[in-house]
Amino acid sequence: MKLDGLTVLDLSLFLPGPAATQLMADHGARVIKVENPRAPEPTRSADAFPWQQGGETVMFRNTQRGKESIALDLKTDAGKRALLALAKQADVVIEAFRPGVAERLGIDYETLTAENPGLVYCSISAFGQTGPWRDKPAHDTATVAAAGILDVSRSPEGESGPAIIGVPIADMLSSYLALSGVLMALHRRHTTRRGDYVDISMFESVLAASPNILGPVFGGGQAPDRLKERTHGGNAMLNVYETADGQYIALGGGEQKFVEALFAGLDRPEFVAPVTGPAGAGHWPAIAFLRETFRTRTRAQWEAWFEGRDICWSSVVSLHEAWRSEHVLERGMRFSDAEGNDHIGSAIKFSAEPARINTKLPAIGEQTAQILDELDLTEADHKAILGRV
Known about the structure:
Helices cover 37% and strands 14% of the residues. It has two domains: 7-208 and 328-386, Crotonobetainyl-coa:carnitine coa-transferase, domain 1 (Rossmann fold, 3-Layer(aba) Sandwich); 238-311, formyl-coa transferase, domain 3, CATH 3.30.1540.10. The radius of gyration is 25 Å and the shape is elongated. It is an alpha/beta fold. Helix 1 links the parallel strand 1 and strand 2 (30-35). The chain contains 18 helices and 13 strands.
């Protein structure tokens, strides 16, 4: 597999770091999860994440598979010495402490690379390691709000307050950027023999995902007027319409051929010219027509109507429906292990070396003794660490 021979230390919790390291584990990396024995990975807890399968939370099962777990209290001398010894042998460290914490613990980039200059060290935080907001605490929703995205995430029909995004986009975007940055640094290490420090901000990961909506900001010095913007409700062909049974159909493409196919099928060719023009007032009559028209049939009836027509569309399905679809199953994005537990498949698909997913989950500190035996530590350190597991 692509990452065979790579050793990754995962000091992160919850989602951004663990999602990145799980992708690495799925593609061959050895990922060692470093857990505090007094405060282990929070997604293990059914109190915080109540939905379970096979005795483990669904969240833990789909972010921690295929990893090893070593239990180290990094506030003890023995635990810190073990981490330093591990870092000497590692290729990558990923951490998600608040800025300054790794330095206070003595496990920061400068400390670890003094012994291992080839180490790639990635920090994921809410707002980054520098700047006036660096010490501001935040999780996904707050960083998305700070990036201006909650303000534009409102209903395209009438006025509504900001809507919470259905997936943790700051967590996941920062996870993928972390993976990208780490792999770039590893690639560069082939020629420089040195690693690098990767500073990933959840907030900036959302900012960087916004080029399609920044026209009025960069070009006009103003916030978007949503119902005049292409992707926020001002385009008839990029919109959501309620059906007769209270379900919804989403139109998702405004190319000329899609516009012509839709309005020819509805016997309203007069809408083609305005709808192929700029978003905003020119689209509003067509949007009003479509809202009225879609409410005349059920979702199933519209699905039958769209079948075979060259129009970019989809029913708005529930999460349950989406994960049961034939396409999801055929592409391996949902699969079951030998015990019948469900897993998210790998979205990175190689033809020559596909992911070989190890669905085993580590118990807290399950590999502690084995990993300690690989390190140059004293017997006293071994006993001190194992006595805390």
